[in-house]
């Protein structure tokens, strides 16, 4: 399955004095099995874009084709779209409402009209996928869990619908470093196990550089660039223009390059940086 | 959607009416309402409509925007109109089966409708032209003398301010939660009444939780800034009557005199 977004434009409140263009002529393509990172700063239109992908917002103009099916065409079944494309909002733990964790996770599958047995199996499976122990947590109230656990439960609630595309809007916002790491590892694991498309929004450039196969950069509703982490983070100036930074490692190695270290361009991992700096230092000391 | 509620909204502007002291505007509105209820002939309404018309003109708020505020009461309006028209005895004008329209009934129906419309337009002018904050400030100041008999004027005003402040916040929150549950396949539009009521649970529970969280945060933030009620509290913007306020009071007195004269003479 793949996703094609063609000339997507969205205008909020057209014709009103408060009219504002949230997205303008955005086009890109996502191939099967890719993990895609979306970056851009607050108010750039990321959330608007994500909400289009599962039909919560209708484009003012343009097309979105998911798996060969145009989801912007009139008369498309919304239930069908939402079954295939799961969207986890920012701070998803604020949507928990049931008495028990199991019931809350079951909300999505129930809306799909699945059988009791099937629902239970999915609840078990998705809780396990997000790294929670079904036996100990299923019957507890979601409101008495810790922040990180709540978030996992909320994400499980979307995963339980077995979407073919999983979209996560800043899944690590407001979490402590450990929960941050755990949630990302979980996203990676889910992506690896399902082999589906995963779309991830984050402000953490290091995470995006490490996880993504492809990065989409958005600024003021326009597409700035699309490419592999190497291609995108290679455009340092362009990123700075739209108020985005390089990952810390890349920033470090680029500064060294500016100071005359001969390292390769756009290093994205600490390991590679260490290796190259070592080689460089070894080279210079041998020359002495 | 839910954002279309215009009743009680503020329309930003710089007109004379906008700049008048909130206390003057509140008293004027109260007097206007009292006037509507004591007049018993159409000349009184003509006077009231004239006064209201000139206020609307001065305020520069588009008339179409004000009229939109009437939408929610159209039903009540039609209902009272019909009730008055058919239920009051007197000289019969038209007979429709068991229903009859009388001269007195028709007069009363028109009378009540005009009264309701003027009432709503008049009171919405107050909120349209007064910032919520100055409005509650004005209420607090007007209630201040009542403190002596134990009316918690400051607390009432503070509660109103906070309630007004959080209407947009909670609407936004509702919107977010609705979208999130829709993304999980929730359906709010179809089904019978019971099913629909049930489908509100996934919105209402998180909304209540959010409201409590917001309230707690707010309480904490207020305490962190040493808020402890109205005693000895000074203000950044003291309400002070200016020349235009005295002019408005004079006009108001004139209007009042006119109404009294009219009701005595006619």
Question: What layout of secondary structure does this protein have?
Answer:
The complex is a heterodimer of chains A (288) and B (266).
Chain A: E1 3-12, E2 20-30, E3 35-39, H1 46-53, E4 61-66, E5 69-70, H2 78-84, E6 85-88, H3 101-111, H4 116-129, H5 134-137, H6 147-159, E7 165-169, H7 177-194, E8 197-201, H8 205-211, E9 214-219, E10 222-227, H9 229-233, H10 236-241, H11 248-258, H12 270-287
Helix pairs in contact in A: 3-4, 3-6, 4-6
Chain B: H1 16-19, H2 22-38, H3 42-59, H4 63-68, H5 74-87, E1 92-96, E2 99-102, H6 103-129, H7 132-143, H8 153-183, H9 193-199, H10 201-224, H11 243-265
Antiparallel strand pairs in B: 1-2
Which structural category do the helix and sheet elements of chain A fall into? alpha/beta
- Could you name the CATH class of the largest domain in chain A? Alpha Beta
Approximate strand percentage of chain A: 15-25%
Taking the sheet with the most strands of chain A, its summary is: 6 strands, mixed
**Total count of domains of chain A:** 3
Low-confidence stretches of chain A: none
Q: What best-fitting shape of chain B do the alpha-carbon axes yield? A: flat
Radius of gyration of chain B: 23 Å
**Which fold does the CATH topology of the largest domain in chain A refer to?**
Rossmann fold
User: What's the overall average pLDDT of chain A, rounded?
Assistant: 89
Mean pLDDT reading of chain B: 85
Shape of chain A: globular
Helix/sheet category of chain B: mainly alpha
- Tally of individual helices of chain B: 11
Helicity range of chain B: 55-70%
Fraction of residues of chain A in helices? 40-55%
CATH architecture of the largest domain in chain A: 3-Layer(aba) Sandwich
